[in-house]
Amino acid sequence: DRDTDKKRIEELLEENMVLEIAQKQSMNESAHLGWELEQLSKSTDLADSEKSFVFELNECASSRILKLEKDNQSLQNTIQELRDASLTSRESTLKFGELEKENQQLSKKIEKLQNQIEKEKQSNQDLETLSEELIKDKEQLQVIMETLKADKDRQIKDLKQENDHL
Questions:
Q1: How far is CA 34 from the centre of its chain?
Q2: What residue intervals traverse the membrane (predicted)?
Q3: How far is 1 from 38, CA to CA, in rounded Å?
Q4: Do the beta carbons of residue 72 and residue 20 sit within 8 Å?
Q5: CA distance 113 to 124
Q6: Which residues are CB-neighbours of 12 under 8 A, at least 6 positions away?
């Protein structure tokens, strides 16, 4: 039973490491998306409301990442507590039952973290889609601006000709 428990703890540690790596990748993706959104907002003269919307989305993603980091730290603390408890509980079968219960709780926490990471990935995909839509909107606005500028130049030319004629 103890060997099984030790193996389970090792498996949980490995899962935790995988979750940490995935979390760091998610953070990097969020940071990169934030940078892209910031560059997009700098390169366009879109309305301030769109800029603040993008900023709020980026802040929301950052706060979720911070929450995941806190949960991950809590999970690491729990794993350390389980290790300590495992070392001190060799003589007591009651401790083993507690460890098993804590392992179950730990498994639930890991599952929650995995779900949160999946939600974060979806959020990052949503941000990327929004970024693409904003780029398309920017391109459309540039085409409209060019058309309006051409119309304005034509009207100025027509008015000058009419003025010269008069």
A1: 9
A2: none
A3: 54
A4: yes
A5: 16
A6: 79, 82, 103, 106, 107, 110
The length of the chain, given as a count of residues: 166
Give the residue carrying structure tokens 């193996």. 7
Token digits for 7?
Answer: 């193996």
pLDDT in tens, 133-151: 999 999 999 999 999 999 9
Give the CA distances from residue 147 to residues 135, 141, 144, 158, in Å, rounded to whole numbers and listed in that order: 19, 10, 5, 16
* Helices and strands (DSSP H and E) totals, the chain: 3, 0
- Rounded to 5°, the CA angle 4-5-6 comes to 90
CA distances from 56 to 13, 30, 34, 39 (A): 35, 13, 10, 15
Global pTM reads 0.36
Q: Are 86 and 8 in contact (CB under 8 A)?
A: no
- DSSP string of 135-159, one letter each residue: HHHHHHHHHHHHHHHHHHHHHHHHH
d(CA 1, CA 96) in angstroms, rounded, equals: 9
Spell out the residues 6+ positions from residue 71 whose beta carbon is closer than 8 angstroms to its own. 109, 112, 113, 116
